[in-house]
């Protein structure tokens, strides 16, 4: 059951959203807020996993409410539903960690696609706004997972979405996860053999990658970044979308954490942020949540979250 918080001050539109969401039995509206401050309080109290949020709210703007909610509830998926269509607003929404931006005039068409994308770890922008937002800032997301099957299903959906948009994919994952992702992509209807043949899907073993760049038990960052640059260059040549971005899915950081090298993992995360400044890439990192048993009280967990633009927690099946 997906727990949804509605944040909308215009009652007729809130009633419309309520009716639309009521069409899906798996959706439960746990609260309705009419201003930004109330939204933050409800998010803290009700712990929704999905929040639909307007921009023009009284007391506290939608942007500021999103900023505070993300600090309180980093795992919740935020979707803005707004009449504001400026590229600056869309860029800011995604910078704050939103997974979707829906033009209010297209809510009847885009609401469910936006929710489905957000719940599978993919971003969504209403079609009319996508062209305006074609050059939006890159994103660097992190997925924490507790169930292998759910992790592979969601990650497979995410990668299938990138490939269907014409964007090439680079996967740096463990052997078991690489095989599991290939199986999931086939189930999603992706012709993965062709994608591999065309260079649109490049996979490397994360353990081998790290073993090649370790010096004195620490990763050699210049060597790691150079290798990543080469992979991005190879993948970029296979792009088919007009505003293509290479999607990098990586588990190297999780391997470092598992080996007790958390600070090195954070250095790699920061190198990823630097890479986004010079290359058209989006990055998704994956960690087993068991590595952080105290979660919010763990300073390493908080540092890792701070290095990312969005945080998702995949629950048990």
Low-confidence stretches: none
Apparent shape: globular
Q: From the alpha-carbon coordinates, what is the Rg to the nearest angstrom?
A: 19 Å
The number of helical runs is 14
- The N- and C-terminal alpha carbons lie at a distance of 11 Å
Whole-number mean pLDDT:
88
Strand order of the largest sheet: 2-1-3-4-5-6
- The CATH topology annotation of the largest domain reads as Rossmann fold
Any idea what the CATH superfamily of the largest domain is called? Answer: P-loop containing nucleotide triphosphate hydrolases
Q: How would you describe this protein?
A:
The protein has helices at 11-21, 36-46, 62-72, 87-95, 107-119, 127-130, 148-164, 175-187, 192-198, 206-213, 221-236, 252-258, 262-278, 299-306; strands at 2-7, 27-33, 50-53, 77-82, 100-103, 124-125, 140-145, 169-173, 201-205, 214-215, 218-219, 246-250, 281-288, 310-314. It is an alpha/beta fold and 317 residues long. The protein has two domains: 2-130, 3-Layer(aba) Sandwich (Rossmann fold), CATH 3.40.50; 140-314, Rossmann fold (3-Layer(aba) Sandwich). It has a six-stranded parallel beta sheet, sandwiched between helices. Strands 9-8-12-13-7-14 form a six-stranded parallel beta sheet, with helices on both faces. The longest helix has 17 residues, at 148-164. The relative contact order is 0.11. The mean pLDDT is 88.
């Amino acid at each position: 059951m997906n727990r949804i918080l509605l944040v909308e001050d215009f009652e007729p539109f809130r009633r419309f959203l309520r009716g639309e969401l009521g069409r899906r039995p798996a959706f439960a509206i746990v609260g309705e807020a009419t201003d930004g401050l109330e939204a933050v309080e409800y998010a803290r109290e009700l712990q929704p996993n999905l929040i639909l949020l307007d921009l023009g709210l009284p007391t506290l703007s939608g942007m500021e409410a999103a900023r505070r909610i993300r600090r309180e509830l980093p795992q919740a998926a935020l979707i803005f539903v707004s009449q504001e269509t400026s590229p600056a607003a869309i860029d800011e929404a995604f910078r704050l960690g939103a997974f979707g931006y829906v033009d209010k005039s297209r809510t009847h068409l885009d609401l469910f696609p936006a929710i489905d994308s957000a719940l599978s770890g993919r971003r969504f922008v209403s079609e009319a706004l996508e062209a305006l937002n074609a050059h939006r800032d890159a994103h660097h997301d992190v997925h924490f997972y507790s169930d292998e099957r759910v992790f592979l299903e969601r990650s497979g959906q995410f990668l299938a979405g990138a490939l269907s948009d014409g964007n090439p994919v680079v996967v740096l994952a463990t052997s078991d996860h690489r095989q599991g992702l290939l199986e999931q992509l086939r189930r999603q209807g992706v012709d993965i053999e062709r994608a591999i043949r065309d260079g649109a899907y490049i996979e490397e073993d994360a353990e081998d990658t790290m073993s090649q760049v370790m010096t004195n038990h620490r990763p050699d960052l210049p060597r790691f970044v150079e290798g990543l640059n080469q992979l991005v260059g190879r993948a970029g040549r296979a792009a088919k979308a007009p505003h293509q971005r290479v999607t990098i899915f990586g588990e190297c950081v999780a391997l470092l954490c598992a080996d007790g090298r958390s600070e090195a993992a954070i250095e790699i995360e920061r190198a990823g942020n630097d890479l986004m400044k010079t290359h058209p890439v989006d990055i998704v990192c994956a960690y087993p949540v068991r590595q952080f048993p105290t979660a919010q009280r763990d300073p390493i967990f908080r540092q890792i979250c701070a290095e990312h633009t969005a945080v998702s927690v995949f629950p048990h099946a």
